[in-house]
C-alpha cells in the first residue's frame, strides 16, 4: 500500500498472519505488548530529493543565520495584515480569488508603509525659504 501526503511517499507493508513467524521485521511490526492484537504492518517514508536537499541546506549555520532574519523582515507584515486587514482566513473560494484577496492585503500594507516613509522623509527635509 502506498500513500502520498504533502510530497512524502509513505509505504505501508502488510502481510498475512502466516508470514509473521519467519519475518525479520517481526519485532518492530508487532511488539510484545500488542501481540494479541497484531497489526502485521510496518511503514516507511520516502521524501523527494528536493526536500532532502532543502533540509540539508537548512541544517547549515549560514542558512540558520539567514532564516533568523526572517522574524525581523517578514513577521511584522504578516502580523499587520492579520490584525489590520482581518485576513486570518480568506473570505472567498478558489485559488484565483484567494490570490487576489492576498494581493489586495499586501498592496494595502505596501501603500501604508510607503506613505509613512514619505511622510517621515518630508519631515526630515528643511523647509525651503525664498528671499
**Which regions have little confidence, pLDDT < 50, spanning 5+ residues?**
none
Output the number of helix runs.
6
Mean pLDDT: 79
Distance between the termini: 87 Å
What does this structure look like?
- This protein is of the alpha+beta class.
- It folds into two domains: 2-51, no CATH class; 70-124.
- Helices cover 50% and strands 13% of the residues.
- The protein has helices at residues 26-29, 49-58, 61-68, 70-73, 75-84, 95-124, and strands at residues 2-5, 8-14, 41-46.
- The chain has a three-stranded antiparallel sheet, with no helix packed on it.
- The radius of gyration is 28 Å and the shape is elongated.
- The termini are far apart.
Salient structural properties:
131 residues, alpha+beta, 2 domains, 13% strand
What's this entry about, in short?
The chain folds into two domains: 2-51, no CATH class; 70-124.
Give the secondary structure arrangement, pairings included.
Elements: E1 2-5, E2 8-14, H1 26-29, E3 41-46, H2 49-58, H3 61-68, H4 70-73, H5 75-84, H6 95-124
